[in-house]
């Protein structure tokens, strides 16, 4: 089949055995690639009971059929692993160029297991794959590691994926970085990599995979790239990056404030917005492979204690480390975000944990003695900056903050769970289900815990005929529970397909299911239909759910924290609360899940997952 090498590179760090294996064509037909393929492979090989930090735990890096093609953002890749933060299966995405190099080296999948007996890094230069000592890299930041390895390997075109000190120390929400602060952000993949004594992976590929309809694909890809460069609907994203959300979303109260307790308001959000960033510190835009959007920002702060010349913060970071903590200093948040990138920390989980600790401190559930003298007051910029290193190294009060909201609350108790905002152990991204009701069922059932990138459902609300190709027609008011279960299912399926191809969510804003099918068929020679594509989304959602069910996930876990089901007193979502039970009933029926949250036998059979039925129903 075109568009793939049909090759899996397997590296066992315990035995130092390196093998090339063939991937069955049927797996591409049923799962396409990316996260979907990775989840199928990890399901086949990894017992759900294995600890995420065990040498037996698998860590997969997976590309898709359009990776390294002329399509914009086609340098992305997916990472699949069992999360130390949630204890369930997680897939996380990253942009940049690293995925392109892995694909051009001749591999669709890199699978890593085992644990090296000393710190190592992996170098992949086409067929030449080596496990090399990383003793000299330990303790280096992600940026230092990248620069050192490019120089050491004497190849300026090589790309580096690595962990920082947070990953080395197995901090639960540590992440991976490649290129210019392109992060594999959520679920703790940095700790999983660190638990294997693996500091980095350097990749350089010089091959080119053959596409089925090479010229037709190129023409269509260029057409879509031009849309991303000119479409009015994402003009603000091109001009101001994701920080434009701070400028525009506050009237709906979709931006969380003060640990989700206050409706968003102009005076707090605009000082963190993309317009101010562009006017005061923006140096230039940064784009991923073949991207015509260039949403990432490179910023420069020339003077003061927050001096930096590095990638700037995205919206999720500005929300978690800004409004959530009542901090509206763009320079302070930008610098703290830079430190998180350097040490290798997920900014959503970090900011959310700080905000939770601030509320605990305000309510006197945390004392000065317990915080080791740190005054965890709202708006404290010094706390935001100073705790990054402590969290990364598990030192002082930072060791506690590094546990994340769920575990912090379990230790504090004292009804702190009422405002501990997470789902299944993952801190909630910066979009409020009281502002757009579909976030409720979406967050509650998201395959990896609360996530906006496993179904950006809110973009289908207050919109006419959002996905007519998949029969999502009509108008869906944001403050209505009607049909939100259906929206959630289709939004999640869309994400599964995007993450299997693998392309950027923002680039997909200008696409329809018909466009996605066309890209896949032209790349591979398959003959998929738009409804077959939706079925593949259903299949991977079911398989992910089965794995998580075997990890212990049940219907009771498909829930929202009490804080998000408490009405706001002011703002554009005042007195609005989604009816989660109503939405879940519809969602379960559409998915074919039983009352305890288990996919039914009949639904699995319809999706061709007969082999999974025995795993689920014979236990």
Considering the chains and any ligands shown, give keywords for the structure.
619 residues; alpha+beta; Aldehyde Ferredoxin Oxidoreductase,  A, domain 1; Aldehyde Ferredoxin Oxidoreductase Protein, subunit A, domain 2; Aldehyde Ferredoxin Oxidoreductase Protein, subunit A, domain 3; 3 domains; six-stranded mixed sheet; 24 helices
What does the overall shape look like? globular
CATH-defined topology of the largest domain: Aldehyde Ferredoxin Oxidoreductase,  A, domain 1
Strand percentage lies at 5-15%
Name the helicity range.
25-40%
CATH architecture of the largest domain: 4-Layer Sandwich
Just give the CATH class of the largest domain: Alpha Beta
Question: In DSSP terms, counting alpha (H) and pi (I) runs of 4 or more, how many helices?
Answer: 24
Total DSSP E strands: 17
What's the helix and strand layout?
Blueprint: E1 7-12, E2 17-22, H1 25-31, H2 34-45, E3 59-62, E4 77-82, E5 89-94, H3 98-104, E6 109-113, E7 120-125, E8 128-133, H4 142-152, E9 159-162, H5 165-168, E10 176-178, E11 182-184, H6 189-195, E12 198-204, H7 214-230, H8 235-240, H9 244-248, H10 266-269, H11 274-280, E13 282-286, E14 296-301, E15 308-311, H12 315-321, H13 330-343, H14 347-362, H15 381-393, H16 396-401, H17 405-412, E16 422-423, E17 426-427, H18 438-445, H19 484-501, H20 513-524, H21 530-551, H22 580-591, H23 601-606, H24 610-617
Parallel strand pairs: 1-6, 7-12
Antiparallel strand pairs: 1-2, 3-4, 3-6, 4-5, 7-8, 9-10, 9-12, 10-11, 13-14, 14-15, 16-17
């Amino acid at each position: 089949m075109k568009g793939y090498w049909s090759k899996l590179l397997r590296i066992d760090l315990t035995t130092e055995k390196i093998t090339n294996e063939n991937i069955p064509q049927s797996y591409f037909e049923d799962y396409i690639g990316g996260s979907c393929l990775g989840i199928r492979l990890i399901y086949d090989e990894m017992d759900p009971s294995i600890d995420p930090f065990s040498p037996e735990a698998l860590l997969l890096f997976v590309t898709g059929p359009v990776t390294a093609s002329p399509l914009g953002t086609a340098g992305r890749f997916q990472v699949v692993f069992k999360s130390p933060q949630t204890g369930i299966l997680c897939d996380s995405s990253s942009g940049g160029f690293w995925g392109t190099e892995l694909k051009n080296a001749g591999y669709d999948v890199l699978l890593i297991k085992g644990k090296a007996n000393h710190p190592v890094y992996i170098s992949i230069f086409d067929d030449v794959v080596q496990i090399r000592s990383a003793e000299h890299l330990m303790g280096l930041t992600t940026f230092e590691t990248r620069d050192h390895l490019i120089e050491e390997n004497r190849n300026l075109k090589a790309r580096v994926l690595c962990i920082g000190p947070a990953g080395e120390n197995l901090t639960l929400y540590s992440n991976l970085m490649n290129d210019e602060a392109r992060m594999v952000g959520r679920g703790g993949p940095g700790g999983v990599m660190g638990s294997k004594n693996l500091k980095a992976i350097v990749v350089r590929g010089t091959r080119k995979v053959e596409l089925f309809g090479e010229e037709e694909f190129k023409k269509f890809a260029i057409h879509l790239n031009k849309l991303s460069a000119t479409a009015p609907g994402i003009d603000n994203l091109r001009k101001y990056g994701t920080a434009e959300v701070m400028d525009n979303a506050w009237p709906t109260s979709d931006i969380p404030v003060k640990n989700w307790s206050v409706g968003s308001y102009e005076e707090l959000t605009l000082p963190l917005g993309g317009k101010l960033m562009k006017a005061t510190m923006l140096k230039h835009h940064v784009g991923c492979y073949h991207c015509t959007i260039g949403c990432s920002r490179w910023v420069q702060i020339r003077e003061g204690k927050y001096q930096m010349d590095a990638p700037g913060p995205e919206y999720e970071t500005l929300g978690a480390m800004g409004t959530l903590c009542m901090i509206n200093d763009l320079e302070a948040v930008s610098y703290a975000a830079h430190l998180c990138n350097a040490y290798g920390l997920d900014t959503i989980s970090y900011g959310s944990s700080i905000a939770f600790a601030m509320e605990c401190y305000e309510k006197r559930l945390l004392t000065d003695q317990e915080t080791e003298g740190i005054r965890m007051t709202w708006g404290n910029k010094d706390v935001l900056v100073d705790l990054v290193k402590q969290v990364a190294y598990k030192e002082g009060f930072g060791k506690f903050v590094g546990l994340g909201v769920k575990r912090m609350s379990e230790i504090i108790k004292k009804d702190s769970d009422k405002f501990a905002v997470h789902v299944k152990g993952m801190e909630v991204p910066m979009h409020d289900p009281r502002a757009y009701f579909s976030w409720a069922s979406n967050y509650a059932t998201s395959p990896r815990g609360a996530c906006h990138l496993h179904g950006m459902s809110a973009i289908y609300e207050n919109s006419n005929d959002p996905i007519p190709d998949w029969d999502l027609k009509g108008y869906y008011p944001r403050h209505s529970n009607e049909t939100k279960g259906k929206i959630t299912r289709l939004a999640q399926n869309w994400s599964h397909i995007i993450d299997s191809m693998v392309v950027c969510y923002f680039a997909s804003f200008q696409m329809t299911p018909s466009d996605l099918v066309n890209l896949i068929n032209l790349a591979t020679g398959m003959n998929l239909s738009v409804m077959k594509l939706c079925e593949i989304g259903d299949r991977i959602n079911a398989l992910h759910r089965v794995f998580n069910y075997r990890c212990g996930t049940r219907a009771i876990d498909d829930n929202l924290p009490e804080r998000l089901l408490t009405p706001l007193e002011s703002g554009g979502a005042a007195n609005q609360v989604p009816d989660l039970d109503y939405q879940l009933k519809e969602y379960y029926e559409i998915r074919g899940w039983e009352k305890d949250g288990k996919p039914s036998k009949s639904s699995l059979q319809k999706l061709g997952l007969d082999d999974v039925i025995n795993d689920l129903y014979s236990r």
